[in-house]
Amino acid sequence: MPVWLREDRWRQTASAVYLSLPVRGLRVTPANIFCTDRYLKVSIPPFLFEAILYAPIDDTNSTAKIGNGIIFFTLYKKEAAMWDSLTLANANKEKLQYLRENAVLKAHEKAKEETEAKKVTKQEHKKYALEATMKLEEEERKRIEDLKEKERQKVTKELELWKKQQEDAEKQKRVQKEGELLQEVQQLKEKKKEKMDKTRIPNEGTSKTRIKATKGCCGSYSMFSENLKEEQLPAPRSAATIKINFTSRVFPTALRESRVAEEEEWLRKQAEARRTVSADLSELEDLKEEEKNPDWLKDKGNKMFATGNYLAAVNAYNLAVRLNNKLPLLYLNRAACHLKLRNLHKAIEDSSKALELLTPPVPDNESARVKAYVRRGTAFCQLELYTEGLQDYEAALKIDPKNKNIEKDAEQIRHLIQGTMQVS
């Protein structure tokens, strides 16, 4: 026979019902809680709590908070109204049995619908990802083709300009050469005219002599033109040696393929870590090179946290903090591990240290500051310091006012504070 839990307390507003169920000494998980729009059940064998609700609720938005030996339910009503009682009164066994079976059936149908919806959503995401990839590839292909076309047009224009320059140079040389030839012919004509004026009585000898002289002139003309051609030839270029020096680099990739800013940041962090190890951590000489890198240790701690090995994650974060105590994410992640291990005071210290390092407050560190306030507020609430916890949650809401989860948790803390004041 089950042992019924009957020490529940509840209060209501027009839109919500707040129910607290003491479960001190019992280990409660979300799997122990079952809730539909009319049926609420908490089964922790051999203990059992069951309630057929007075009216339907919005089971999608309703929440259950487990902590400090109490399950605190926030049940939002589907219709705003005041209930006469928490459970349905004056109901026979057949009706109660029908409501239980109907609740289980609805839960199965809802789970099936959610599974189908997730399947459809996953298919739509795959389809969208494929379409987006194809679109990106098409845009990249078009961009490359446009670049090729622009480069081709540029090279074509440069080639046409070079051809035009060559033609202009050839034309100028040809005109210059023709001018020189005309000048030489004019000089020859003047010389010939002077000789003819000196000879008044022509005879055969003189004519032969004139003919020979003319031939001689023609021969001298051809020799002169050849001399001009020889003089116009440029002198041979002198040989020389070109020395090429390559920039020395730490990374094997070429400079044009590297990310200089990221590489310099990585080298700076490595140098700082080496200085810290050589100065303060001489006992860590047996560690491997990657184990002396705070970023590598942070990634290792994140993997350990994801597998549920919180102690190993804390050890990795501890060593990373010893290597570099200026990284706020190390303290923030270690605070999450301490919350899982219920080292609440240490979680508060690490969250406070992270907030101290996350200054000045800028948009880039908003997410980290919200996590730090929420984790410190959670640790305060688990220590039953609800006022300090509420202050941290309200500080997180100021940074991220649209976060519904933080708003709901803050509302529950306010109700807990009010309940504590009423009991006292």
Automatic annotation (TrEMBL):
Q: Where are the transmembrane segments?
A: none
Cellular component aspect of the GO annotation: dynein axonemal particle; extracellular region; neuron projection; nucleus
- The residues forming a coiled coil are 105-198
CS domain ranges (all copies): 3-87
Would the keyword RNA-binding turn up in this protein's UniProt record? no
Protein's cellular compartments: Cell projection, Neuron projection; Dynein axonemal particle; Nucleus
User: One Pfam family, short name please?
Assistant: TPR_8
Which PROSITE patterns does this entry report, sorted A to Z?
A: CS (PS51203), TPR (PS50005)
Q: What Gene Ontology molecular-function terms does this entry list? A: nuclear estrogen receptor binding
Q: Which GO terms describe its biological process?
A: determination of left/right symmetry; epithelial cilium movement involved in extracellular fluid movement; heart development; inner dynein arm assembly; nervous system development; outer dynein arm assembly
The record's TPR repeats, renumbered to this chain, cover: 370-403
Q: Which InterPro entries match?
A: CS_dom, CS_DYX1C1, Dynein_assembly_factor_4, HSP20-like_chaperone, TPR-like_helical_dom_sf, TPR_rpt
| Keywords, sorted A to Z | Cell projection, Coiled coil, Cytoplasm, Neurogenesis, Nucleus, Repeat, TPR repeat
What is the protein's name according to its record?
Dynein axonemal assembly factor 4
What organism, scientifically named, is this protein from? Dromas ardeola
